[in-house]
Please model this.
Amino acid sequence: MSRRWESGDDIHTSDAVDYLMDLIRGQSPDERIYFRKIKNLRDIASAILVDASSSTDTEIRAGGSKIIDIEKAALALLGSALSIVGDNFGIFSFFSMGRKNVFVNVVKDFPELWNDHTWTRIPEIKAYAGNRDGCAIRHTTARLLEEPNKTKLLILLSDGIPADTGYGSKSSSDTSGYAI
Model:
């Protein structure tokens, strides 16, 4: 509820009394005696896009977790949090094998519920081949724009190493340097 409006849903009793008291005293009253009911509704759609290229299969440090495992843990946490607050969200993974073979896989689609069935798809994500971030981002953005929600977020989980055949030099020896 928000007070002190010149027009609104109803009259705020305390502000109306102050108005009358000011009139009786001969003072200029504050005419903002209404209140408004303001609904704070979340209207968000989030697309979580995770890099599942072979570079995510590397360990952070010797004996440590692999990047892909950390991404999966983040997906489980994000999915659970978004589900609890009631946001609309989808989870997608991607990898590529050249510019004409970019694969975007649906882990959880927007209309699906977050439940045991969708949650158990996260461990099935495997690191494979290269990654063309731009193509996957454009595809996921197009999917996100189809959602009716007012606010749309795209979250990219990646190791930050874009690399694929056809990037960079003709021999493809410096693919990640070129892509970065």
